Amino acid sequence: MAQPGRPPAASGHSSQNGAGGERYSNGPVQNSLMHSSQMLDGQGFSSTVPGLYSHQIPTKVPVHPSSGQYNFGGSQNVSPLSNQGSGQTLNRPPVGPISMAPLQHASSVPQMLPPSQNSAAIPSSSSSFVPGAYPPALSNWQYGQTPMSQPTGSQTNHFAHVAGTLSTQPLSSSGSTNPATSYQYTVSPGGPPLQNSYMKPGSVPPPVNRPLASAFPPSRPPLGPPPAGGPPLVRPSATPVGPPNSSLPQPLLNSATNQEGDATAAASDGSLVQNSYDAIEGGGFMATTYPSPAPQNLKMGRNVGYSYPTLPPGYQNSSSPGAPGMQSSPLQYPAGPQPFPQPVLGTNHITGSMGGLSLQPEGLRSINLLQERNILPTTPLQAPVPNLHEEIQKLNCNPELFRCTLTNIPQTQALLNKAKLPLGLLLHPFKDLSQLPVVTSSTIVRCRSCRTYINPFVSFLDQRRWKCNLCYRVNDVPEEFMYNPVTRVYGEPHKRPEVQNATIEFMAPSEYMLRPPQPPVYLFVFDVSHNAVETGYLNTVCKTLLDNLDLLPGNTRTKIGFITFDSTIHFYSLQEGLSQPQMLIVSDIEDVFIPMPENLLVNLNENKELIQDLLRTLPQMFTKSLETQSALGPALQAAFKLMSPTGGRISVFQTQLPSVGVGSLKSREEPNQRASAKDIHLTPSTDFYKKLALDCSGQQVAVDLFLLSGQYSDLASLGCISRYSAGSVYYYQSYHHQHNPVQVEKLQKELKRYLTRKIGFEAVMRIRCTKGLSIHTFHGNFFVRSTDLLSLPNVNPDAGYAVQMSVEENLTDMPVVSFQSALLYTSSKGERRIRVHTMCLPVVTTLNDVYLGADVQAITGLLANMAVDRSVSASLSDARDALVNAVIDSLSAYRSSVLSIQQPGLMAPYSLRLFPLHVLALLKQKAFQTGTNIRLDERIFTMCQVKNQPLIFLMLMTHPNLYRVDNLTDEGALNINDRTIPQPPILQLSVEKLSRDGAYLMDAGSVMFMWIGKNCGQNFISQVLGVPSYVSIPQNMTHLPELETAESTRTIAFISWLREQRPFFPILYIIRDESPLKSSFLQNMIEDRTESALSYYEFLLHIQQQVNK
Ligand SMILES: [Zn+2]
Q1: Dist. CA 232 → ligand 1 center (Å)
Q2: pTM of the predicted model as reported, rounded to 2 decimal places
Q3: Superfamily of domain 521-672+679-757
Q4: What does the CA dihedral 397, 400, 403, 405 come to, rounded to 10 degrees?
Q5: CA of 771 to the centre of ligand 1 (A)
Q6: Distances (CA, A) of 207 to 55, 212, 244, 248
Q7: Closest C-alpha to 843, from 352, 318, 414
Q8: Which residues, other chains included, contact 127 with Cβ-Cβ below 8 Å and sequence gap of 6+?
Q9: Distance, CA 501 to ligand 1 centroid (Å)?
């Protein structure tokens, strides 16, 4: 639809995109985008759902079905498993009456949700805005939308009821014997909270320094709900004192839930932890000092000056900004409270007008993109370095973990709007780290007002007080914190590891737990229909699982279980003492229940032989099955019920469209429509999977989906099960063990990574930012539990997240702002941990400085996430137009507001020189491209990847790296563990760069192509490919032979090294010029024209035309 105040996109490009599209956040569309994307991200969902839960999950009365109500293959139907796959196993016995009352919670079965509450329905966002209804003035870009317009109170209700679910769980005798373990179950949102019984009288501190109201607006729940799905902390009315937000590190329930709600967790295995302060810090200093000294310290603080708090953070440094040596010289502090020589923040020369000074001179120049064609760096593009004082910057968070689209934060929303660039964060919070400081301290020091963890960017007013860098509240330094476990010196709180590391992990004390940390529980759900058996996947999966059984993250508490399904559901009793596993068949898929639940999830160590026996037997058991139906929905319901009491991970393998029972789907793909990209079905056709995912999330269960299908399986619907439960989606298109053998290796490798990678359970993540900034839209796989608390039943090291932000209040007088993510999780060893990342960025006041600090990769990544939302909520062509407009608008703004002299050509700031190229690459990416024959599931899967992958992989998938590999040398090579890894330069993605006498490797992330030119040197062909001549290169070659030649060693080392960098396994296709796969290779040549897409140069001309209007 045409848009007011904005001429429709012109020229060939627009015709390709369809008639004039809308921009991301332009006027009315802005609103619709933000609205819809929030809906899709779960917030919207949560805001509409609560009503459902209040009815559907009533107070927790355990359901005791009357006998006969459920049918299942009772004991007489138990079939022993045998390697022969006896007919007995395959003959489904007739169902008999139930012989025992299964433990189940039927009341939470999702299909009971009233249809009127179809919350998964996609809001008709864009259509609700009539063009012209808004004045043209609104056509200003506003990437940062007013945050959180969604009602949040209702979300709270939702969780209240989830909590209610918990309350009826095993601990029906509330608070009887073991308060420590039972309290989390017994709180009920509505009634008089039992928390009171756990509050120590007198332990609540006096309401000193009431927290800033703006940190927690009254309209939203003061505290985040606990990760265990606990109550939304309706504060007991009886609580006499205490500011709502002042949670104390004491074992009060209130503070406990407070801590939980606020904290966020990231998991890490102990194996990766190299620096642990446990031993040093464990003794001696107990967590007894925080609450009580607070008033005293404040009192003491009065001596040093009440004037401090009114000064901007970093004031203390102003005396010695340019003297980095200062802070290393140990100033004697005992002379009484005095400013610390902490190198943190706000050196005076961090001012907006000097924002670009730390950049290389080239960073300051403008580039005429039409003239300078060689803009692609030959080495991987690095994130821009924030323009902070060197001493601060060296403490800053690694950009691989945490980065911002704008490393110079605009001081006002008006300035941000002017820049026409999106403001947001990209996170990889649980990344595998080789070095991670871990602190075990009974006191975790956090701001008493906003709950920020102490970090390198706070300022110490003196040795007893620190000022929060997010809300500016002055806090006391707890006595324990005065001792530095690293230096073993007392009186150096600013040298503590917490203040020296932007990334750190805390061992969380008991107040961060709402229940005892859950054991690792792994449930595998296998499709065993005829179609599934045909693919042969079960062999690979069971074999890989067998091989890695001992490497599953866990401890002696690890539990494991298996379910298989076709048109019925099969459980496997692994009860101790059995000589072999027993299969229990439940054929009533309308009302699934769990037979003998106590023996279906069993301890891995104690029952390993039975488990191994089952894994060896399983692939043969169904080989004669003719059952074609797939009851995925009921199987997932069964899995959910089985996992509910503990939480854990469900891994479901599916090979076709679910056809019977709840959640069954119909094919919606019309192959003829693929290329047009019109009316394609990107939205779920049912909300069943989403609702079930939310139920799972409430019980700390995540579902990972492995889709191995040659036919349309409606991933748009199925994927919801993972998306909202914080799971992962894997897709193996046309998996077949014989017809598609390279997929077998891919599945093996990726499954091994999946099974053995770190995992965090019952996690929550919260992102905080300096007062004035506000986070409003989240991207990734999770459920937004409260306004900003992400619920992550599982967290894995391969998941990325993105958030959009806006400047809510002007950042006047703030030289810097900070962002902090905190991930609270339970490790596979049963430890409660908190991983914290803090990033500090300067604030600038001019448009030029904003552009100077632009991070083009982060911007591209965030735009890609926004474009997925737009594709789903509006249309693919809308999303494409919005991407193009993002380039046009930012370069137009740069031209009209920054450049003093109008020059011909297409001018871009140096920082954005790759912006048009990256956006063009997005348009040609499978998620967003048109005019090609992409399967719908493949497109949806790519969209899932955009949403869930860390930025580095998203960029690789969008703009692959191209290398010439027939002339690799050791020059500039890396040396890692005695291996020499060549580092060839990265080439532009254009056939112009290809020479017929060369060989080239294209690394597109999840796939690699090695293209061999017709005249490629004989040396390479024989020494690397191991064949005599070009014509003898096999048509479907996917492996390089390991030859005893230097060339072979180098090439293999390089490719192996590339593969090691990522959690997925890229298949390598070695192709000759005549290969049918050549078109896939050429498809990734972003700079070249294709049938349906512009070349880079044409794209630039199009942009220029629009910019110069
Ligand atoms: Zn604070």
Answers
A1: 22
A2: 0.73
A3: von Willebrand factor, type A domain (3.40.50.410)
A4: 150
A5: 9
A6: 38, 12, 9, 12
A7: 352
A8: none
A9: 18
Alpha-helical runs (H) found in 523-648: 530-535, 537-547, 608-621, 632-643
Q: What is the pLDDT of residues 365-376, one digit of tens each?
A: 899 999 998 899
Third-level CATH fold of 960-1085: Severin (3.40.20)
Name residue 804's beta-bridge partners. 424, 777
State CA 139 to chain mean position distance: 32
What's the half-sphere exposure (Cβ side, CA atoms, 13 Å) at 478? 22
Q: Letter for the amino acid at 297?
A: N
Compute the distance from residue 392 Cα to the ligand 1 centre, in Å.
19
How far apart are the CA of 635 and the centre of ligand 1, in A? 46
Which of 1066, 945, 1061, 1085 shows the shortest CA–CA distance to 1011?
1085
At 293-350, the pLDDT tens digits run 333 333 222 222 222 222 233 223 323 333 332 233 333 333 333 444 444 444 334 3
Q: Tell me how far the alpha carbon of residue 449 lies from the centroid of ligand 1, in angstroms.
A: 5
Both structure tokens of 29: 């569309």
Please state, in angstroms and rounded to a whole number, the distance separating the CA atoms of residues 315 and 317. Answer: 5
295 φ, ψ (degrees, to nearest 5) = -65, -35
Domain ranges of the chain: 521-672+679-757, 960-1085
Q: How far is the CA of 244 from the centre of ligand 1 (A)?
A: 14
Could you give the CA distance from residue 146 to residue 709 in angstroms, rounded to a whole number? 42
β pairing state of 648-654 and 760-769: unpaired
SS3 for 959-1004 is CCEEEECCCCCCCCCEEECCEEECCCCCECCCHHHCCCCCEEEEEC
Q: Which residue has the tokens 């008991």?
A: 510
Q: At CB < 8 A and 24+ separation, what contacts does 6-14 make?
A: 6/139, 7/1109, 9/881, 9/884, 9/885, 9/1106, 10/1105, 10/1106, 11/1102, 11/1105, 12/1094, 12/1098, 12/1102, 13/884, 13/1094, 13/1099, 13/1102, 14/881
Nearest 5°: phi and psi at 820?
Answer: -140, 130
Whether residue 86 is predicted with pLDDT greater than 60 in this model: the reply is: no
Look at residues 1002, 1005, 992 and name the one whose alpha carbon lies nearest to residue 1087.
992
Q: Contact, 1066 vs 1005, CB < 8 A?
A: yes
Strand partners, 650: 523, 703
